[in-house]
């Protein structure tokens, strides 16, 4: 399904796009359609829907009105024409990439990916015969160029990397990819479409963990794939054999023939990859994500502003060795953030304590208002120690090479008053690096 652009500002889009009064009841809020399947009027309607001649619903695994409303809103907010919603962010990445890749293909990926994405590429995709090379310095276009092979089929990176907050120079990396006829897939979870719309800067596919900022309240799991930029011509998928070969489900014609070179990918990904692998989102979770989207800009604007305030405060503290926040002039991607993220550099960042892992442990155990939890994008502020949790399965050498120091702590900033968060951080820092015992005592 192609979504028509919704010609209003972001805050209006996040409230209205993809929804309206229910035609049957007049209910203003999108109903939750908790049904496995949908009734056919007659034999012919059933045949037509399975043949793709009738766009009506068949089974919630392949489509649901509640999910469709969310897909329209997400496509609008990201500046895309098509969206596909699935059960989790990890499912979104898997589905998006498997819609492109097959055995023998190669991916060039950012070296600072979330550990779950890195493991997916190395382990799960590796078993399928898909290889990957990681770019250690994502800001260097020559590093991306040097890793391209004849069988490279995708570039993959995060708009704001986890946990070091490196901002991807989307236009630059997209230019390298497009010179080789390769699509750029961007995980936009940390930035959200409020801070950055990668499709407008050259990305071809955007993925989200909708469980994070989009839902916003830590209550629902979901993922999304968005394609088809409305501000420029979409990527031409006619160079991909699985989209140009005759398809049995289409009666022997190809996806490119049926849907054109710009939409073949998303239609194949929806009908073949997502439908058959089955990472279906619950309609109730789709409803919760849509509810969260209605306040996205309000939450992210406040969270980003508070995060920058705390980052500046932490940078001045003697207990802190360094702070990784792109809003700080000291950050390696500060200039990229200033160019691409005028509304803010996000609400997730990390800092490194002088006392190493023992200091990090004391700090994490000392906070009271921050929640110790492996999640981000919540209305509540969260804290975690990556080296012993999210990045624990890397070797020490790999962690150090990625800048995951023993004393590094990640914060996800919520909606609490900044003064209250500072009041929680101050004694935790004191506990992290105790004052030295005076001589002679």
UniProtKB/TrEMBL annotation:
Its cofactor is pyridoxal 5'-phosphate. GO terms for biological process: cysteine biosynthetic process from serine; L-homocysteine biosynthetic process; transsulfuration. The modification N6-(pyridoxal phosphate)lysine is found at residue 212. One of its GO terms (molecular function) is cysteine synthase activity. Its EC number is 2.5.1.49. Transmembrane segments: none annotated. It is an enzyme of class 2 (transferase). SUPFAM superfamilies: PLP-dependent transferases. Belongs to the trans-sulfuration enzymes family. This is O-acetylhomoserine (Thiol)-lyase. It comes from Kineococcus radiotolerans. The lineage of its organism: Bacteria, Bacillati, Actinomycetota, Actinomycetes, Kineosporiales.
